[in-house]
Amino acid sequence: MTEKTWYVTTPIYYPSDNLHIGHAYTTVAADALARFHRLKGEEVWFVTGTDEHGQKISQKAHETGVSPKEFVDKIVGFIQNPLWQSLGISYDRFIRTTDWDHKRVVQSIFENLWERGDIYKGEYEGWYCLPDETFWTESKLVDGNCPDCGRPVERVKQASYFFKMSRYQDRMIQHILDHPDFIQPSSRRNEMLSFLEAGLEDLSISRTGLDWGIEVPNDPEHVIYVWFDALSNYLTAAGYLTEPERFARVWPPDVQLVGKEIVRFHTIIWPIMLMALDLPLPRRVFGHGWLLIGDTKMSKSRGNAVDPIALTKTYGVDAVRYYLLREVPFGADGSYTEDALRLLFNVDLANDLGNLLSRSTAMIDRFGQGVIPGPHPFGPLDRHLPQLAAEIYEQVDQAMSQLLISDAIGQIYRLIRAANKYIEDRAPWNLAKDPARQEELDNVLYNLAETLRVVSVLLSPFLIETPEKIRRQLGMDQPVQSYREAIYGAFQGGERIRRGEPLFPRLDLREGATAEPGAPEPAQKSADMSQANYISLDDFKKVELKVGTIRQAEAVKGADRLLKLTVFDGERERTVVSGIKAHYDPQTLVGQQVVLVANLKPVLLRGILSEGMLLAGSAGQQLSIVAPSSRLPEGARVK
Ligand code: MSP
Questions:
Q1: Cα–Cα distance between 318 and 86 in angstroms, integer?
Q2: How far apart, in whole angstroms, are the C-alpha atoms of residue 377 and residue 383?
Q3: Residue 524 has what pLDDT?
Q4: In Å, how far are 222, 311, 347, 574 from 608, measured between CA atoms?
Q5: pLDDT in tens, 358-369
Q6: For residue 175, how far is its CA from the centre of ligand 1 (angstroms)?
Q7: Is-contact 223 211, C-beta < 8 A?
Q8: Which CB contacts under 8 angstroms, 24+ apart, belong to 387-394?
């Protein structure tokens, strides 16, 4: 028998607006799980997509003056590319509820349940929350508003088809009790059990007076309720009715990731639909927390949405993926701040990982003439890294099987940090002074290269560019193919490395640091590294210094030290955010000439893209902008 394909899904998103990093959070997590299972050699079916019908989308489209299909086509196109493309989302099927096969599936499900007597026609009278597309009875409202989102509801009274959910209440409770893994984390399980025990009502599953949706078979006045339509996507995308062979391999879903606000749909309505169809239920529905801004959920309607594409442009795809996967333990709510992202960038990515690679390759270059030496029989001090790597190989696997993505990354970081400590403990620069200790030195260099190789494998479900970059510097051209490659010992010694650019050039985290010389490198702890304090003339020439003139200056709201400057560089005006507010009155700066670092990577500071930095000297409390001693044309090179 062929093995079951590992099936993972995200919610399908409403294309009513562009998506934000809250949506990216779910999708990147699903992607990491999918990549991990592929790495383990499993067949994977990873599905994401868009929920395109319903009153909300229809209204939005009419407000914009285009048809609903035109409206969604545009947003969906953008979601596929550039959004998911730029985050490296490796879905196997992108399902749209406007796809032809989906319509067929939804209508067949409806007919099937009608024939079984699970659907009947009646009259619905109650309330409807438009933003959530949810029906509510009077008794569930809180102060007359939607109990989920707190927004106003509208009265609905119309003929409707109903799904006999009440019939399945006891079976559903029993299923949850018998399958402790079905709803995760377990706190959400108790919530759902209380909801079920309070009593299930039949669900209205059609609307009249709305033409944007899938018609009820043989009764075109009615369109099928958008949630009934949307939940069925998981069946369509698995090939239900249209690709029976795939369906046999893929069904049921192994993990369905959903935000906590839609756990109820996925652990009550959805499994009851499947019970009624005599289909196996998903193995796990995982309700994760929200990304918050301050105390509130990030959302487009609240105006606090953060654009993932802008973040990837500033920090690179891997830093954004790393932040989303590592910072917020999967399950809990977490606050998003760009400062936290920047900090994680410097500490975990630049310092711990980036430095490990650059220090290791620098030493292999210097002490091993660019060739990975050894290994020779290990002494006691050299056995720790291989042992730890073997332990972490198991731990990462275990954490991932429990969907503890942040913990899995934390385990990998134990290895990275241990390798950095190993460098300090073994001080290869001292070993190099004593020819009698050549084998020890070889083993240290070998262990560092081998650990980095293992790290490149372990990180590959989470980061999509970095593992390849690490491998290239280690002289490996093959991409990571299997989790087993994370078993220690593949390097034989004798491989030639290729040193390269830093993986994650450090960000200057000081507020307004763009006006000051770059942040000091992390403390240089070893003699070996102190050599790196010299730069060559060629290095210096990489810094493009130009004369510019400040044309506008204003304080940055909410920042004590920052000014926003508009600087003309001879070709164009650029914005530079600079930490000189305490030293200059903005008005006096207009017309001031400055020396601009023109090729510094732009960074976001307090939401403003800063495109360069001004040179300034400082001593204690004093700070003074560096400028030519007599006026020069803007754009003049400083060298
Ligand atoms: N279309 C429905 C889902 C149907 S699934 C059959 C829907 N769409 S949505 O566009 O509102 O997206 C909801 C999902 O986006 C959430 O369940 C969650 O996975 C993700 N998130 C949206 N905002 C989020 C945060 N602020 N934080 C974390 N996830 C968030 O509901």
A1: 10
A2: 10
A3: 28
A4: 49, 12, 23, 11
A5: 999 999 999 999
A6: 25
A7: yes
A8: 388/414, 388/415, 388/418, 389/415, 389/451, 389/454, 389/486, 389/488, 390/487, 390/488, 392/458, 393/454, 393/458, 393/486, 393/487
Q: Residue 292 CA: which ligand 1 atom is closest?
A: 26
Q: Tokens in use for 228?
A: 């009934």
pLDDT digits (tens, 9 = 90+) for 64-95: 999 999 999 999 999 999 999 999 999 999 99
Ligand 1 centroid–CA 259 distance in Å is 6
Calpha distance 114→108 (Å, rounded): 10
Closest Cα to atom 25, ligand 1: which residue? 22
The secondary structure of 103-139, three-state, reads HHHHHHHHHHHHHCCCEEEEEEEEEEECCCCEEECHH
Which of 553, 557, 545 lies closest to 573, judged by CA?
553
Using an 8 Å Cβ cutoff, are 198 and 302 in contact? no
**Alpha carbon nearest to ligand 1 atom 2, residue:** 13
Report which of 614, 89, 521 is spatially closest to residue 309, judged by C-alpha positions. 89
Q: Are 9 and 237 in contact (CB under 8 A)?
A: yes
Residues of the chain scoring pLDDT < 70 = 1, 511-535
Beta-carbon count within 10 A of 525 CB: 12
Atom of ligand 1 nearest to the CA of 298: 26
Residue 544, burial from CB neighbour count under 10 angstroms (0-12, 13-18, 19+): middle
Handedness of CA 83, 85, 89, 92 (dihedral sign): positive
For helices 169-178 and 186-197, what crossing angle results, to 10°? 160
Question: How far, in Å, from the CA of 13 to the mean position of ligand 1?
Answer: 6
Pocket of ligand 1 (CB under 6 A): 11-14, 22-23, 25-26, 51, 230-231, 233, 258-259, 262, 290-291, 297-299
Domains in the chain, CATH or no CATH each: 1-96+289-336 (3.40.50.620), 338-486 (1.10.730.10), 535-625 (2.40.50.140)
- pLDDT attached to residue 254: 98
Q: Taking the chain, what is the end-to-end CA distance rounded to the nearest angstrom? A: 71
Residue 128 in contact with residue 136, Cβ under 8 Å?
yes
CB 94 within 8 A of CB 49: yes
Residue 518 is predicted with a pLDDT of: 29
Give the pLDDT score at 145.
94
Q: Which residue, 461, 83, 11, is CA-closest to 308? A: 83
Alpha carbon of 343 to those of 182, 413, 456: distances in Å?
Answer: 36, 16, 22
At 366, give phi and psi (nearest 5°): -80, -45
